[in-house]
């Protein structure tokens, strides 16, 4: 994909995912250009691929975001496989060619955390591997009726309804009193503190360094991802918090979209090994005390024990997480869940998921 292809790809996106056939706005085109061509790790071999017909029209595209990975001690080119779109009414050959082109042939690592059942089947057919547990989304309620009212507003009314939220608030107060209120912070417990973006850029690679397969997150690349994620204001205010132990040492961090009175969308939970339960406890106490009705995020194997200890938390299938590699040791690491993807190393921050309607 080249810069000149952006208008055609943006129009294809609107037709496939928004049901309208018209030229895209300048905002959408600018965002697509930044997303697909702006990464510090961008190159033609790991960038977005398009299928151009003989008449010069683009009828299929597979968006990709390049990002370097550490894979069992080696630094390899990686890419997040994102939105896959094809104009089914016009042709199908292009879609098949794009899928076949994903077959791993080099020492690289490709992954996707938003695959549909159909896409997951295609990826399995060309050698893809499922990433354990990360197809699940967890949801932790703080004010269950408020969370229910928010979902009704989003899905039925297509907007937030302050009146409905006010109506159910007394019920949540009764439930919280019956449950015993917010979880009390124990003496010496880990606590959430403010964290600047420069500090996050320094600490984030350290907090995931124990994973065999993980994003390299050099400062320029991670800063670029953070800048794009911060644009997704529909979900709330992009926020980073550190988690400190009783000595003040940073043992974890979490990245989320803050939206008091609504849902906190958690992108990343970073933790030193063995500190996951403490980091999760500190995170949930902070999100509840800051006025959110619920929090949502992606499951990961290392977090499952800490998540299972939470009250009013449920899991549901979100989307398939898949990996593509021909490196045997990397494939083994993926199979045992020794891989860190999701959030900033995933697609949940992208405006394409919930914007440009």
Describe this structure in a few short sentences:
The chain has 357 residues and is of the alpha+beta class.
How much of the residues is beta strand, in percent?
25-35%
Low-confidence stretches: none
The proportion of residues forming helix, as a percent range, comes to: 25-40%
Major sheet size, sense and barrel closure: 7 strands, mixed
Query: What does the radius of gyration come to?
Result: 21 Å
> Number of helix segments?
11
By CATH's scheme, which homologous superfamily of the largest domain applies? Gcn5-related N-acetyltransferase (GNAT)
Average predicted confidence as pLDDT: 89
Shape: globular
Distance from N terminus to C terminus (CA atoms, Å) equals 24 Å
Overall tally of structural domains:
2
How many strands?
16
Q: Do you know the CATH architecture of the largest domain?
A: 3-Layer(aba) Sandwich
- Provide the structure class: alpha+beta
CATH topology of the largest domain, by name, is Aminopeptidase
CATH class of the largest domain: Alpha Beta
Strand line-up in the sheet with most strands: 9-11-12-13-14-8-15
N-to-C SSE string, H for helix and E for strand:
HHEEEEEHEHEEHHEHEHEEEHEHEEH
Give a description of the structure.
By secondary structure, the chain is of the alpha+beta class. It has two domains: 3-130, Aminopeptidase (3-Layer(aba) Sandwich); 136-142 and 182-317, Gcn5-related N-acetyltransferase (GNAT) (Aminopeptidase, 3-Layer(aba) Sandwich), CATH 3.40.630. Helices cover 34% and strands 25% of the residues. It has eleven helices and 16 strands. The chain has helices at 6-18, 26-37, 93-100, 117-125, 144-157, 162-179, 197-207, 219-229, 276-289, 304-308, 328-335; strands at residues 49-52, 58-66, 69-71, 74-76, 78-86, 109-115, 129-130, 136-141, 191-194, 213-215, 237-244, 250-258, 263-271, 294-298, 313-317, 320-324. The strands form three sheets. The chain has a seven-stranded mixed sheet. Strand 11 (237-244) and strand 12 (250-258) form a beta hairpin. It is globular, with a radius of gyration of 21 Å. The two termini are 24 Å apart. The mean pLDDT is 89.
